[in-house]
Amino acid sequence: MEVIILGAGLAGVAGAWYLRQAGHTVTVIDRQPAAGLETSYANGGQISASHPEPWANPGAPAQVLRWLGREDAPLLFRPRLDWAQWAWGMRFLFECLPERSRRNTLAIARLALHSRDCLHALLADTGIEYDRLRKGILHLFFSPREFSQAGQRMALLHQLGMRAEVLDAGACLRIESALAGCGDTLQGGLYAPDDETGDALAFTQQLAERCRQAGVAFLHGATVSALVAERNRVVAVLGTGPDGAPMRAGADAFLLALGSHSAALARPLGDRLPIYPVKGYSLTLPLAPGTEAPYVSVTDESRRIVCSRLGNRLRAAGTAELTGFDTRVNPARCDAILRRVLRLFPRIELAGQAEYWAGLRPATPGNVPVIGRSRLDNLFYDTGHGTLGWTLACGSGQAIADIMGGKPPRVEFPFTRL
Q1: Are residues 351 and 378 in the same domain?
Q2: Residue 51, in any domain of the structure
Q3: 69 near 120, Cβ under 8 Å?
Q4: In this structure, what CATH number is given to the domain that contains residue 237?
Q5: Both 294 and 355 in a single domain?
Q6: Residue-range definition of the domain harbouring residue 62
Q7: 51/384 Cα distance (integer angstroms)
Q8: Chunked in runs of 10, what are the mean pLDDT values of the chain (418 residues)?
Q9: CA atoms within 13 A on the CB side of 197
């Protein structure tokens, strides 16, 4: 079968790998000059199966109200004259209902564990290097109220088949000594030893190269404007090629993996994907030789900031901003993340200026990605992974390759139109 994949981020490249391994002829189309240069470019680096709870949970509405008016709020809603934004927000509130939140958590956890297994198998086959560390993730709590819920979270992870343990402040420091002297009163933490970290961009680009070696074609610098459908099938992709000339490309099947831009292409075909761009920020800190920077990945649960060691760099990422398709960097948001990092790790020494970045996470209201069939016979989706694109990429790619090949997927998940 000949397949066209739209999008060369983590989702698209992973899908290309598994489809090619299954024997399909694959072409990937992307507007950027190389793979992974949009949402996958500078994410937080965590492969965090231990964080399956969606942003939409019973406690979220009260938190959002407390954060209103704060420019440094972890979740910032900037109202716009945009029906999609308000519709997404209303659906987000619906997904905060206890039963919806439990269902979404279970779905994310199953796919995350499956994806981690898929990643390990892929690495055994390819030997890809991407500043990988397998030292777990330490979730930190700085308020007694939040720490009091750590035991409940640990019990949930155990039920989902994940290892985790609640630690007091002293035990947290023994796991990651770079936290010594932290400027806030650390109450304790939740440690998930099986989680890991790595550079998503390096992984994506190296996997893209393995795909090329296996026969996958990449068409970079091409912009897709529409999908043409006839008799319940997509027959062509329309757009502009790398040379600026009109482009029309056909195939037996099509996979839409364009992140936040997926919804606009799907809407004229009758599918309303519940995906809205949620802007996230990150900064990459060059580390001075021998500096006391963390090796264990850290999540500051109070401020929704993650820190991951990537070789001689420290990646810090966080916050969510609903402000449409705006990728401009707001220095105030990044400065707030930097101040928090220096407070968490007061003995860190930098070798240069931090690199600030902002990207659009393709988020569904319940954090559950859209994977599976569309209403058309030969159009498929692998999109809407939100903050968990790195965590879910390989499992999603294998699952959609199975579905497109007519096989049952190997993980229980609410796939679309199965």
Answers
A1: no
A2: yes
A3: no
A4: 3.50.50.60
A5: yes
A6: 47-96+128-196+276-363
A7: 17
A8: 98 98 98 96 96 90 73 72 87 95 97 98 97 98 93 96 96 95 88 98 98 98 97 97 96 98 96 95 96 96 93 94 90 92 95 96 97 97 96 98 97 88
A9: 29
